[in-house]
Amino acid sequence: MSNFTFKGRNTRGELVEGIVDAASSDAVAAQLMAGGVVPVSIEATPEAVGVAGGGGWLQALLAKPVTQEDTLVLTRQLYTLQKAGVPILRSLAGLEASTSHAGIVSLLRDVHASLDQGRELATAFARHPNVFSSFYVAMTRVGELTGRLTEVFLRLAQHLEFELDTRARIKQALRYPLMVVVAMGVALIIINLVVLPKFADVFAHFKSELPLMTRLLLGFSGWTVKWWPLVAAGGIALALAWRNGVATTGGRYAWDRFKLRLPIVGDIVLKATLARFARSFALASSAGVPISQALTVVAQTVDNAYIGARIEQMRDGVERGESISRCATATGVFTPIVLQMIAVGEETGELDALMTEIAQMYERETDYAVKGLSAAIEPILLVVIGLLVLMLALGVFLPLWNLSRAAMGR
Known about the structure:
Layout: E1 2-9, E2 15-22, H1 25-34, E3 38-45, H2 56-62, H3 68-83, H4 88-98, H5 102-116, H6 121-126, H7 134-146, H8 149-203, H9 212-247, H10 249-260, H11 265-286, H12 291-299, H13 305-319, H14 324-331, H15 336-348, H16 351-371, H17 373-407
Antiparallel strand pairs: 1-2, 1-3
Helix pairs in contact: 3-4, 3-8, 4-5, 7-8, 8-9, 8-11, 8-16, 8-17, 9-10, 9-17, 11-12, 11-16, 12-13, 13-14, 14-15, 15-16
């Protein structure tokens, strides 16, 4: 989509001009003709998204990005201003004047300019996909259509806060295991490339056959020293192949499905994803979005292609006239108690309230699982480290022990 400035005449012969988003000038002309405007001139204009002012590509490269924390703060501020009854244009101007973040200033300036040009707020947000997710944009559009923009900003702030809190707790739980894994990897590289070759020179003077473990270690070390450029190139090639594969639709689906089957971590990913689904669905339902449309929006925002496909399966069943509880059962991802709560909510008409309860339940379970994540990983790391130390000890010290026994005449 690109920006096009246009001038035209309406049915009363008055001059009309403005800016629209469209794929081509022909699409702009068709859109104007459908609205009763005869186009006089249509010209493409450069996008104003990103860098404010003229710093060029270097300024854009060095500019501080807008993080999810910044989006949360901005959403909270918009909710407060809307709750106080401040018009949206004045709110954007005030926020732009009160922040020192260049990226936020550029963002607010572009949103303000878009609203001045007649665009909707959701459309202005959609011009910044790196800041506002598709779910954020969809819920903003729902708030504009239903006149509940203040409530939508509050719910979006709560949604972002939950996402940030979950990610922070997962990072905290994985910090120590990751440090151990990195230290162990560095130690293995040093031992393999520096230490073992020195022992290989010592063992070369032995006139007896070396133990099997020693031969394996020295053989692997020699192969690594000889072919390490090829090993490094192969590792980089595998990483690029994995990244390109995950970027495809089929690869993303397979990877997201595989993540759910990982030991220890898979259960946490599943619960966090279902909590995001329940919270998002409750937010959309309480805002008055039809169920099929709400499921479509939520399926695009759960950040898991496999779960998203199961949600789209639910939507298809609902559009065929089936009950939500039956469609949820067919997905095979919900627990029996959650399915029971969905059925009760459907019968009583309080589905959005019970979906909020489901979200809170999954969030609590995710919290407990994250707290126990480090404790569950540490024993596995200790076992792996113990096995590596045992292999190195047997491979290095067994020949020395045999040599000392031979020297003692045993």
